[in-house]
Amino acid sequence: MLHSHLTTLNAVSLVLNTFKDEGLPSEALLAGSGIRAADLSRADTRITTNQEMRVCANAVALRREIGLELGRRMHVSSYGMLGYALLTSATLGDALRLALRYPALLGTLFELSLEIEGEQVSFCANGYGENPQLAVFNTELCLVSLKVICEDLLGQPLPLVGARFGHSAPDYHASYGQSFPCPRTFDADDNAFAFAKSWLDQPLPLADAVTHQAMAERCRKQNLEFTGRQTWLERIRKLLAAQLHAAPGLEGLAEQMNCSPRTLRRHLHDVGCSYQTLLDDLRFERAKLLLNETEWPIYRIAETLGFSETASFRHAFVRWSGVAPSQFRA
User: Fold this and answer.
1) DSSP string covering 136-156, please?
2) Is the pLDDT of residue 50 over 50?
């Protein structure tokens, strides 16, 4: 499956800031992502999920438990207009239900839901479909950040009655206690944390009906623009994915999109990528599928992806993944 979801730079910026104090240059964390340091200064920059995951993979390689720390740093203010809309909601329940309406603005990789059972409510994060090697990291980041959002909105700690994780307990599982000081279950059927249902009716200290209405409307418009970009990018990726064996080039792709090369280049820049970055992203995803699911020799995979020489494919794959195709397959 070729993922084309757009997301914000929230997680990437957090990764860079977290490692900044350790003196690690941003270039090391951005390696292979196609994201430039200059992109981080644009509030409206959008990147693909694969670009975000490349940066996160670089971070996890340095520190496996980094998802917990990043989650604790991802406050509600990280979400721009949506964050302000949540803060000015009347109650915690109103804020969470608003957040669930705009998963694209949250930048989540999960299907979020509030499940009420008796006097308890579970904030669930399921349906993860990205890189399985980063599943634990992304689950930690998601659940911890959701709890931080709840506490930012309330202005006080949210007492939990339990937390569930679909993965097995990692060797650093004791660190979970800092964010989830409650009974914790691993190898569970879902990912969630639970609290008393009465907290949903808790008034928020920064509630303001006028400001909330204005921010909610801006979120609606931002979401429309965001999903419009998403639809456009999906069309681009579908066209290009069907032609990896003979990529049409920027000019050829622009003609297929019925626009000028300049317009196509500008639109790609607006979503935080370029023609070459998009082509590399698609080639990398297809290469991983072929290496995992077929017995094709490396030279045949190279030809299928449009490389004139096997050596060129090997060089590109090392740049994308850090290992040679044969090592990845092994």
Assistant:
1) HHHHHHHHHHHHHHHHHHHTS
2) yes
